[in-house]
Specification:
single chain; about 230 residues; alpha+beta; Trefoil (Acidic Fibroblast Growth Factor, subunit A); about 15% helix; about 35% strand; disordered N terminus; glycosyltransferase; repeat; MIR_dom_sf; glycosyltransferase activity; Mannosyltransferase
Length: about 230
């Protein structure tokens, strides 16, 4: 009888400990989900808020224009080829976890192929707008055509607010055209550069990813680490 009493006490204690650990873990997840900013080193997916598609790339080259790696849009959320790394422009540095200020120049490196989101004065294959491609060597180094300005009205790039991405060299804005490709990338949307930020399909919002958060907190901000 004493054995069963002792066993029950130990069992209840262990269950209480497990419940406590799970509760703490869930609280951390809840806290992480409230992280406010996109930061240097963040890996994310970008959703076009009008078309409801994610910025995407893959090792498929354009059959016209530059012949560089194509950039498209997909409507599925679980495609690993839609992950992009937020990093500084070539030759610059940024502190890992530092929030990206509005009107800062950045590069977006495609995780799977290591090439950077890029644009230049080539025509896009479907709509005849400005072509958007991926470019760079195996180390992710390209040229000034990889630089984009984060255009937003806050102090920093917020996760809950759409931004526009303006190409530094050509002043074009990253956009969807609303058109879709045939084979070999059937159903994927065309991504282009357009001349006006007020044109259609130019708003992008940070979604799923690994968010790296600052060690030094901004005013009003709570300590948050990472989120998958």
């Amino acid at each position: 009888m004493e054995f069963y009493k002792t066993f029950n006490i130990i069992f209840k204690s262990k269950m209480q400990l497990i419940f406590l650990l799970v509760s703490v873990y869930l609280m951390q997840i809840s806290s992480a989900s409230k992280a406010e900013f996109v930061t240097c080193g963040t890996i994310l997916k970008l959703v076009n808020t009008d078309l409801k598609v994610r910025l995407h790339s893959h090792d498929v080259k354009y059959g016209s224009g530059s012949g560089q790696q194509s950039v498209t849009a997909v409507d599925v959320s679980d495609d690993n080829n839609s992950h992009w790394l937020v990093k500084p422009t070539m030759g610059e540095t940024c502190k890992r976890g530092a929030p990206i200020k509005c009107n800062t120049n950045i590069r977006l490196q495609h995780i799977s192929t290591k090439k950077n989101l890029h644009s230049h004065y080539f025509s896009s294959p479907l709509s005849g707008n400005q072509e958007v491609s991926c470019y760079g060597d195996d180390d992710g180094e390209g040229d000034s055509g990889d630089n984009w300005t984060v255009v937003c009205n806050n102090d920093y790039w917020r996760r809950d607010t759409p931004v526009k991405l303006k190409h530094v060299d050509t002043a074009a804005y990253l956009a969807g055209s609303g058109r879709t490709f045939g084979r070999p990338i059937s159903g994927q949307g065309e991504i282009v550069g357009v001349s006006s930020q007020y044109g259609t399909y130019t708003d992008w919002q940070a979604k799923e990813g690994l968010f790296i958060h600052p060690g030094d907190l901004l005013p009003h901000q709570n300590a948050v680490h990472t989120e998958l």
